[in-house]
Amino acid sequence: MRPIKFISFAIIFTSLALFLTACSSSKAESTNANVNKNAPQIVDVTTENSIVRDLPTYFEATGTLASDAQTDVAPTVAGKIIEVNFDVGSYVNKGDVLVRLDPRDAQIRLEQSQRQAEQAAAQVEQSKAAVKQAEAAVEQAKANMRQQQIRLGLTEGYDFDINKFSQVISVKAQLDLAEKELKRAEKLLETGDVSRSFYDQRLATRNQLLGQLEEAKSNAAISIKAIQTAMEGVKTAQAQVGIAQANVGTAQAAYNTALAGVDQARKFVSDTAIYAPISGYISERVADLGEYTNPNAPNTKIATILRTSILRLRVDVPEQNIGKVAVGQSVSLKVSAYPDRNFAGTIARILPAVNTTSRTLTVEAEVESGGLLKPGLFATARIAQTKSEPTVLVPAKAVRTDGGVTKVFVIENGRATEKLVQLGDTENDLIQVKTGLKENEKVAVSNVDQLFDGVTVRQ
């Protein structure tokens, strides 16, 4: 029995010794670990100072880019398409020939109009010649009238009173004297102072003068009739001049109408070539070779051209920012197609009224596309304000973001202090810090991912 008890005791003792040894070894390892953990950690860093710079302020708005000019090209005359010089996506310059129509009908029409114009021109010349003939006839009639007046000793403007003709006046004067002598002779005959023959002589003289007076009046009437006939000839000739001049007017009107027909026919010929009204890209083609097109038919366009050298961006500005926008302000644009590039623009138009539903004001900016931007792209616009504000900036590499939290590490007295910041815009390799940092604070710009609040650093 004793040997068995001894062996059991030896086993228990040995186990106890091994347990104590293991505990001692574990405690030593734990002590060494604590020593290593408590040893100070040092991170090597480089630093730069935060700076303050005046940056322009802005607010953002979104919108869709659109062409500043879009036109549907349509023919103005009917015809068969014999030439097409464009396709979808091609660029055309203003004045380029897009389509040509068969010009033969137009040429025939032009030739007919030119012949009509030549005939009308000849008629005008004939009418003018007739006017000259009528004017010559007037002068001849006036000459005839003056000859009659001169022959009768009348001046122009004479009132043609028979009793005022010189011959009639002379005979009447002689007749008056003969009447007086006849009356005296009659009295003397009654008293017997003169003979009957003396009285008869005076009576014969008086009667002769009466005949002469009638003859003078008859001659005067004939002369007046001749002058009146001459005057009527002048009036008739003048009327013929008026008629001839009216014929000239009619012929000239016909000639002008013919010239208008020639111009219209020439335009008809010219319109068989359809030109690009603006420079831009073809967005739609509807014309095919051999097709007959008619401007009076519906949907007769042959193409749609978009001008993209300058695009328009319409954005809706919230009511609280209406006072911050004005024509001429600069605009910076970003599109998802070119995330690393800004495009410049200028506010060109502001609508006069606020949308009563959305309480926004529509603003239109013009943007130079540089051949990159396309109508229909969605864009975010930054509208710059005229007043700049001082802003704290740090190098972008000084910023670290963990789980949505943005921070920088300020280095002071050999230690890193974590500071939460709110960021703004970027300017080259700098980034705006809206809150959390002041000017001239020294921030770490290397090994930022190894830093934590309070860690010792070495510069």
Summarize the structure.
This protein is of the alpha+beta class and 459 residues long. Helix content is 41%, strand content 34%. Strand 12 and strand 13 (360-368) form a beta hairpin.
Descriptive keywords:
Elongation Factor Tu (Ef-tu), domain 3, 41% helix, six-stranded antiparallel barrel, 459 residues, 21 strands, 3 domains, OB fold (Dihydrolipoamide Acetyltransferase, E2P), Helix Hairpins, four-stranded antiparallel beta sheet, disordered N terminus
Domain unit count: 3
Listing every helix as H and every strand as E from the N terminus to the C terminus, the arrangement reads: HEEEEEEHHHEEEEEEEEEEEEEEE
Tell me the radius of gyration.
60 Å
Distance between the termini: 77 Å
CATH topology-level fold name of the largest domain? Elongation Factor Tu (Ef-tu), domain 3
**Proper CATH architecture of the largest domain:** Beta Barrel
Largest sheet: 6 strands, antiparallel, barrel
Number of DSSP helical runs: 4
Oligomer: single chain
State the shape: elongated
What does this structure look like?
With 459 residues, this protein is α+β, with helices and mostly antiparallel strands. It folds into 3 domains: 47-64 and 304-458, Elongation Factor Tu (Ef-tu), domain 3 (Beta Barrel), CATH 2.40.30.170; 75-101 and 273-301, RNA polymerase II/Efflux pump adaptor protein, barrel-sandwich hybrid domain (OB fold (Dihydrolipoamide Acetyltransferase, E2P)); 109-269, Helix Hairpins, CATH 1.10.287. It contains 4 helices and 21 strands. The strands form 5 sheets. Strands 3-10-13-12-11-14 form a 6-stranded antiparallel β-barrel. The chain has a 4-stranded antiparallel sheet with strand order 7-6-4-9, with no helix packed on it. A 3-stranded antiparallel sheet has the order 15-16-17, with no helix packed on it. The two termini are 77 Å apart.
